[in-house]
Structure formats: C-alpha cells, structure tokens
Amino acid sequence: MKVIAISNQKGGVAKTTTCLNLAALFAKKYKVLIIDCDKQGNLTKNIGDKDFDSSINDLFLKRDYDIQQVRKNLDLIPSSIDFAGIDLVIQGKLARETILTKAIKKRKEDYDYVFLDCPPDMNLVTINALTASDYVIIPVQASQFSMEGVNIMIDFVSGIRENLNPELTILGILITHFDERLKISKSIEQDFIDNEWKEALFKTRIRRNTAIENSQHKDKRMTIFEYDEKSAGAKDYTKLGKEVIHRIHNYS
User: Fold this and answer.
1) For a 10 Å CB count at each end of the chain, is N or C smaller?
2) Residue-number span of the structural domain to which 203 is assigned
3) In the chain, where does DSSP find H-type helix?
C-alpha cells in the first residue's frame, strides 16, 4: 500500500480536484481509499453529496467509523463540519501526530493506494497526513507568488521528514490552472526551473479546463472521467497518473 498526500498550505491550487481525479483514475486498476482531511469537506461533496453516519472526526477521536464505497474500487472516509476544531481537541493527546498513521496501517491489506486531501493549513491534521504518507504531491497554481508558497511548503515537509517521518518523499510539484497563452503561466514555469526545481516538477501541466469546473458543479458531482473522458482535463490527469506511477516505481 502506498499513501499519497496532496498538500499545499495555499487554497485554490486544485488540491481537491487533483486528489479526486487521481484517485478515480487509479481506481480503474487498483483498490483505492480517499481520506478527506479538510473540514470544509469539498472532496466529500464533489464525489457525491450524501449524509454519512460517520466521518474522519470519529477516526481522530478513536471512535467507530464507517468507510463508504463511492465508486467501484473507490472508498471514502468523508469529512464534515464536525471536524472543525479537532486540533484543539487532540493537541494535548499523546502521540497526537500519529493518529492517522495508526488508522491507515490497520487498512494496509485492504487497499493498494490511499490518497489524502489535506487542508490548506499547517495544522495538526496536515501534520498527521504527512506523517502517515509515503509521498506528497504539491499542487501550485500558475500565478503570482506561487514560488513563495512552495518554499514555505517544502520547508514544512522537510520538518516533518526530520522529526516525524523520515520516509516522506516529495513526489513532485504540480503546476495547475496552466494556460500556455498567458505570460504568467510560462513565467511561473521558468521560475521553478531557475530555482533548480526542474527535476521536482511534474512534466504534466493541468491546463485550465471548463470541463473540470463543470464536473464539480453541484448538479453533477462527477470525476472528470465520468463527466467527459475526452476532455483536456481527463487527458491531463491520465498523463499525470502515468507520471505518478513512474516516479513511485523509481523511488521504490
């Protein structure tokens, strides 16, 4: 079982979109679990807005919780508004950083891949997610100040690796909302190369694509592959999936 966190402390970088669609792609071939670690619960809503009897909040409080099957080969531990404030609840607990690690290890025989949609915060939940993960993908929007945000995120990941999870590997930096017609997109891409992060960058760029936005509309609640498998978004995430598998094999 491989555990992959999708994380960035900045919002609006297609973190949830990437987690959902990568997981859906992998579920075509593998048994996959998604854990929605964000109290906003956008991933839970995007995969089908249902009233679940339990959530990740129960997991963190070490209560019984259910795992929901949401698609073939694709299961979900949903989030809910109850998860807000969990940091305050667990901050005084022993081994508070490894709650999620222990829960995932109990499921290691059940899944090939686990994807974690992290909150846009550097809080105890994010620390738990990164401590539980083998790899982290850092999505960044092709916009101004992207470099600054990535520097902060990489320092944070380095701290997790040094203190809690020495096996944590940055699988790659993913540029999203990319539009090759815009100077800012090309400029951001060049900034990463100039900062000697060319090797960390995924070759795949997730292009701006209305099909991705439409697939997540409240009347749809679909993955990009369900909505339009011939769209640029589906092609980009398919290409990214192949690159993710290739990088994991190289690290293994």
Assistant:
1) C
2) 2-6+11-251
3) 15-26, 42-46, 56-60, 86-90, 99-105, 124-132, 146-163, 183-194, 210-215, 224-227, 232-251
